[in-house]
Design a protein that fits this description.
Elements (H helix, E strand, L loop, with lengths): L10 E6 L10 H7 L6 E2 L10 H14 L7 E7 L1 H13 L4 E7 L7 H6 L5 H4 L3 H4 L16 E6 L6 H6 L10 H4 L6 E4 L11 H13 L3
Parallel strand pairs: 1-2, 1-3, 3-4, 4-5, 5-6
Helix pairs in contact: 1-9, 2-3
Length: 218
């Protein structure tokens, strides 16, 4: 496979973790992409206890620190809430050299489980990102207005986590309903056999991300 990260076409890859996760959870994807992409950053965001806005600020700073303007192209993959953060970052900053975005198990239209969790006393004060994940907060899809940006999604119907089995339909990945994981602005859609959390450490999912980054399709 031809290495895409050459002097003639410098590429920055940004991998964004989701709710209650950290940069360590993106290391499997990073290692899998390493043979083709040498410049990969995995921002460590406060997605457990800080607000969505604070997470977005930290993401913006992490990308700015990587000097994104020096790259010919930027590819971004976000898992779960990471996909929402990626979309919001792109819509606000609108960097013209971002060419590809892939959202993996992202609750584009919110999470029923977030609404359930917020019914617990004090949950919203402790786990502040839940407010950005509730259904009413995600009624409108954030579509980055960047010419030439290719958007893809990876979804799953492996309802392999106990919250999904209790509260979601069979058409869910264990934490996110299939209807929420889809996005109308995604020209490319693929499915993985992994449940929501396991997507971060799954070879099939990582292969799909690599394939989209290199070929622009699945």
């Amino acid at each position: 496979m031809q290495n895409q990260d050459t002097k003639e076409s410098k590429t920055l890859v940004v991998l964004i973790h989701g709710f209650c996760k950290g940069a360590d959870d993106m290391q499997y994807w990073k290692k899998h992409l390493a043979p083709e992409f040498s410049d990969v950053i995995t921002p460590d965001l406060p997605t457990t206890f800080s607000s969505f806005e604070r997470c977005l600020e930290k993401l913006t700073q992490a990308i700015d620190d990587a000097s994104p303007e020096q790259y010919d192209q930027i590819f971004i993959a976000g898992h779960s809430m990471g996909g929402l953060l990626a979309r919001e970052y792109l819509q606000r900053q609108r960097p013209g050299n971002v060419k590809k975005l892939i959202c993996v198990g992202t609750p584009h239209y919110g999470s029923k489980l977030a609404d359930i969790a917020l019914c617990l006393p004090g949950a919203g004060m402790i786990w502040k990102p839940l407010h950005a994940l509730k259904l009413s907060a995600r009624q409108q899809l954030t579509t980055p207005e960047i010419p030439g940006l290719e958007i893809a999604v990876i979804v799953s119907t492996n309802n392999g986590h106990w919250p999904g089995k209790l509260f979601l339909s069979d058409q869910a990945d264990g934490l996110v309903d299939l209807t929420s994981a889809h996005a109308p602005d995604a020209k490319h859609v693929s499915r993985t056999g992994a449940a929501h959390v396991k997507m971060q450490y799954d070879r099939e999912t990582a292969d799909l991300i690599k394939k989209f980054f290199i070929h622009g399709q699945f």
